[in-house]
Specification:
13 helices; globular; 37% helix; DNA-binding
Amino acid sequence: MAELYALIDCNNFYASCERVFDPRLEGRPIIVLSNNDGCVVARSNEAKAVGVAMGVPAFKIRDLIEANDVQVFSSNYTLYGDMSRRVMESLSQFTPEVEIYSIDEAFLDVSGFVGRDLTEYGRTIRRSIRQWTGIPVSVGIGETKTLAKIANKTAKRTPGSEGVVNLAGSADRDEILSQIAVEDVWGVGPGYTRALEAKGIKNARQLRDTDERWIKKRMGVVGLRTVLELRGQSCLPLELGRPTRQGMTVSRLFGHPITDVEELKEAVATYLSTAGEKLRKENLAVGVVTIFLMRDRFKEIHYTQAATVELPVATNDTRELIRHGLREVGSMFSPGREYKKGGVILSDLVRADEVQGHLFYEMDRDRSRRLMRGIDRVNSRLGAETVKFAAAGVNPKWKVKACRRSRRYTTRWDELAVVRA
DNA sequence: TCTGGGGTCCTAGGACCC
DNA sequence: TCTGGGGTCCTAGGACCC
């Protein structure tokens, strides 16, 4: 049976989430900023229209914001995560074959719908998601994931498409591929774009028709897969069920540069607490912990330091993570230096219930498990950080900036939307 | 003053083994 | 004079994704 994929992609997801709970934002330019209110990570169509570029630092577009009355939001990942869950649950009403690809995208296997009017089916999905969650989505359909991606992009930029494009068996296929710049093809980043353009390959159609051997040599098997996918040969199957993760990172820019070792330790202890919570939520334990500290990367050449600890026994106990992590912070810190960012990388993850014990390592595993579970329960009921470790500091000064965060409408009782009738 | 965060996969090269 | 040919594992770096 011929394969067919549909890619459902939320339009301007973060900006759309903000709009769901504040209808006054309808029709107005909105942008959402990254952590620490640094760069633009999402824009409504109106914001794109007035010339806000993706990824620009907020301070560089102050005038643009002012002149166009752009509504600015700090990112509110609690809200976006919950809205994402609602969209994905809604999609699973249509078919169980759903691969959640990212916070705002999902691939559906629609091979079984051959013969039906897929464009019409796409419109039904689109209407339903809008009605059930308030989020506008676009739908792209093709014989491979890469083609579905292109169809989706085409749907977004073609007003007449009503948000759905089906490339499978489309007579306009070559024309549509010619309209997609090579850098917009899924799997082609800045590095490959440079190489391809130097060879005169500028759009998806030309890339599709490029000699396989050249591609293999220049872009490896990954590039080759992309080309085959453009030709309609599916190389990337739907991935159902989440793969076991390889590692975990928690890192943040500090709200201001840190020069004091105690503050630095508080920050790292906080990141370790977050990491511990994530580990326990996924029933994982960690064997290797890396702590890294960064100074100003725009001013210094050697701006990063890192230290790695191998734990005697894999753990997810926040106390242990903090104890090992802070020792490394202490030995890396040099007085007089300004630190701008820090983080923790956990690798060698194993399932928590399959941890290999250590003969000479005395620690009451059961007691640890009960304590951590207690802390997690309190925090999930009464709000994050209701119970926290003293090492993480009380009311820390280094916390990230988020001056314009909207309410966490769907996950906090004290931040519900208010409706006046 | 102000520049995000969290991932995955592939490749090349070296060490080591038989 | 001569000095194989695989495997495997690890690591660093580079490419990409959202």
